[in-house]
Design brief:
By secondary structure, the chain is an alpha+beta fold. It has four helices and eight strands. The protein has one domain: endopeptidase fold (from Nostoc punctiforme), CATH 3.90.1720. It is globular, with a radius of gyration of 18 Å.
Length: 193
């Protein structure tokens, strides 16, 4: 390779890395804006439009935090998950006894999002090292008894400055919390369409 080709390749790689870093910074900021909205935890089933459907803006669960943060960046997880589930229904969890897809709820279930992110995102290691979890990461937890939870790592540090905080909704609305290691981590992903 000549010097020009190497220089061009390095420039492209640098630009790509910068664009990815910028995307995850925007995702972090998007999640943080959600904490300014008054949202009541509501796990009810809602009939919503498709694509780009959303439940009422003053209601939601943990998955709605992730869905809304990505939607602010132009990514419709409702559509993305539905299309993959429709084409590959057999590889998605059957925890709810479904025999077909449902655009109202499929993307609002943590195990479905975990399957989707493992297929189309980057699966990151699960560890007890705070430094492994950076802004833009998606973290999934087991709460015990078959209950799962999901949140986004954002660019705000804990009071002791040892770890990044999480935007999630575990019952108190869309909040910023220092809860990374409060539950058993079962999934760790990065996703950019």
């Amino acid at each position: 390779m000549n010097k020009f080709t190497i220089s061009l390749l390095l420039s492209f790689v640098s630009f790509t890395l910068f664009a990815q870093e910028d995307f995850y910074k925007q995702l972090s900021e998007s999640a943080l804006t959600l904490t300014k909205q008054n949202v009541t935890y509501d796990p009810s089933y809602f009939s919503i439009t498709y694509p780009n459907g959303d439940i009422p803006s003053d209601k939601g669960v943990c998955t709605d935090v992730v869905i809304r943060a990505y939607r602010k960046l132009g990514i419709d997880l409702q559509k993305e998950v539905h299309e993959d589930m429709k084409a590959n229904f057999g590889i998605y969890p059957k925890n709810w006894g479904l025999s077909k897809t449902d655009t109202n709820i499929d993307h609002r279930r943590v195990p479905n999002l975990m399957t989707f992110f493992s297929r189309f995102g980057k699966v990151k290691s699960i560890s007890n090292k705070a430094g492994d979890y950076i802004p833009g990461d998606i973290v999934c937890w087991s709460l015990g008894g078959g209950l799962t939870h999901i949140g986004l790592v954002v660019d705000k540090k804990s009071k002791d400055q040892k770890r990044y905080m999480i935007v999630h909704n575990i019952g108190g609305g869309q909040v910023l919390a220092d809860c990374l290691f409060d539950y058993k981590i079962i999934g760790h992903y990065k996703y950019q369409k």
